[in-house]
Task: inverse folding
């Protein structure tokens, strides 16, 4: 299977059909201008060495060379080899809000599902970092300890839903404290070392927080741990869906007076937590949750050495499309747009018959 190191560069291949259409229109216009002065038979007699096919062949070779050069830049990789090297990375704890308000659908398909997608996209950018997972609502629990097994992490993420924790609320502060525990903080069996290679990411709507999350974020920052937040939801808000045991929607959450409750994102709280944690706050939207900024912040962290490890490394095969592109360019140079009338095959055959 072919893998590309820079797959986004392949979009440049769209230039090829655009140039082909433009070239065809140009030749058609030039042909129309000639035919406006003389008929086709006269043009053929006046320009016997003009070839209709050769310019297209030359142009086709140029376009093929261009396409191959784009593929070369994208760096096609086929096959893998096992290499030995040091595993360097940071420790990242994810605190994921599973309160009922995360089922709201003001961002599609819901805050919860959008948060899971954002987390999956984040994992794709982290590389060799170790991650842990803490889920929280009215209380917080460590769902997954630190690991570099991203396949297992994705299985845990897939299982996240709003029925995992019965106690409702948004205990962000407790979740941050639990995240610190996954790093070994306050563990009598582990020696705590203050480094700048750890980060905590809180994914929440920030509504109805139960504790002093800002104080917890400030404490984490004092130990060298950066705290970032991703906000889920909109200022307009949305009702909170209610489901039965069969996960079928039966209505929306109401207050004591029977009015439908609307949940809204608490951006001020989430931004304050990120500021106290010396991190950044980004807000998720319907189209894309901008987690790339957070990924860049994590990449700036110091890297710890996790020891030697075996890695799979793709084998680059850019040489082949590059050689093919050069061959196309060379062939294009040796093909002339006009026929060589001195060595015209039809003419030579006619002479032999005579």
Result:
């Amino acid at each position: 299977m072919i893998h590309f190191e820079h797959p986004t560069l392949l979009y440049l291949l769209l230039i090829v059909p655009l140039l082909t259409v433009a070239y065809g229109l140009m030749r058609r216009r030039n042909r129309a201008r000639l035919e406006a002065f003389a008929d086709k038979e006269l043009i053929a007699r006046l320009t016997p060495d003009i070839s209709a096919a050769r310019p297209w062949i030359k142009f086709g070779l140029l376009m093929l060379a261009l396409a191959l050069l784009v593929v070369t830049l994208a760096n096609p990789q086929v096959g893998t080899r096992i290499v030995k090297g040091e595993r360097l990375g940071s420790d990242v704890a994810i605190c994921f809000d599973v309160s009922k308000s995360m089922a709201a659908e003001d961002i599609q398909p819901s805050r919860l599902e959008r948060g899971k997608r954002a987390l999956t996209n984040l994992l794709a950018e982290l590389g060799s970092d170790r991650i842990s997972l803490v889920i929280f609502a009215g209380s917080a629990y460590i769902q997954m300890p630190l690991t570099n097994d991203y396949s297992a992490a994705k299985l845990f993420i897939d299982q996240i839903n709003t029925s995992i924790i019965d106690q409702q609320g948004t205990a962000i502060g407790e979740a941050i404290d639990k995240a610190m525990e996954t790093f070994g903080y306050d563990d009598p069996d582990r020696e705590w070392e203050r480094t700048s290679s750890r980060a905590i990411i809180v994914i929440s709507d920030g509504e109805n927080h139960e504790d002093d999350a800002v104080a917890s974020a400030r404490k984490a920052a004092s130990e060298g741990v950066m705290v970032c937040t991703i906000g889920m939801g909109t200022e307009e808000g949305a009702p909170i869906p209610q489901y039965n045991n069969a996960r079928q929607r039966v209505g929306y959450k109401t207050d004591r007076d029977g009015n439908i409750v609307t949940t809204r994102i608490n951006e001020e709280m989430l931004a304050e937590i990120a500021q106290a944690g010396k991190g950044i706050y980004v807000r998720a939207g319907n189209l894309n949750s901008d987690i790339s900024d957070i990924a860049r912040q994590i990449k700036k962290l110091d890297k710890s050495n996790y020891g030697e490890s075996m890695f799979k490394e793709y084998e680059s095969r850019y040489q082949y499309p590059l050689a093919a592109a050069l061959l196309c360019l060379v062939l294009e140079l040796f093909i002339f747009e006009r026929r060589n009338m001195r060595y015209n095959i039809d003419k030579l055959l006619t002479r032999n018959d005579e």
Observations:
- Residues 130 and 148 are 5 Å apart (CA to CA).
- The chain has eleven helices and 13 strands.
